[in-house]
Backbone:
C-alpha cells in the first residue's frame, strides 16, 4: 500500500530531488529517471524497476490511486 504524504511547501526536504531537477548536471549524473504522463507512470509501477517516489498533484491522485495501491 502506498503511503500518501501531502507536501505543502517546495522547501520540504522530501521533495528536494524534484526541485533540483532543473539542473541539467544533476539529471545527467543521476542513477534514476523521471516518468511523466499517467500511462508512463502506470507502466513504471508494474515494471520490475524499484520506484523511489511518485510526485503527483491532488487532482491527479484519484486517477492513479488504484495503481499506487
Residues:
Amino acid at each position: 500500500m502506498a503511503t500518501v504524504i501531502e507536501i505543502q511547501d517546495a522547501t520540504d526536504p522530501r521533495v528536494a530531488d524534484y526541485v533540483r531537477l532543473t539542473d541539467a548536471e544533476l539529471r545527467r549524473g543521476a542513477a534514476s529517471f523521471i516518468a511523466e504522463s499517467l500511462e508512463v507512470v502506470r507502466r513504471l509501477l508494474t515494471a520490475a524497476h524499484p520506484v523511489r517516489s511518485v510526485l503527483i498533484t491532488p487532482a491527479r491522485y484519484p486517477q492513479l490511486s488504484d495503481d499506487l495501491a
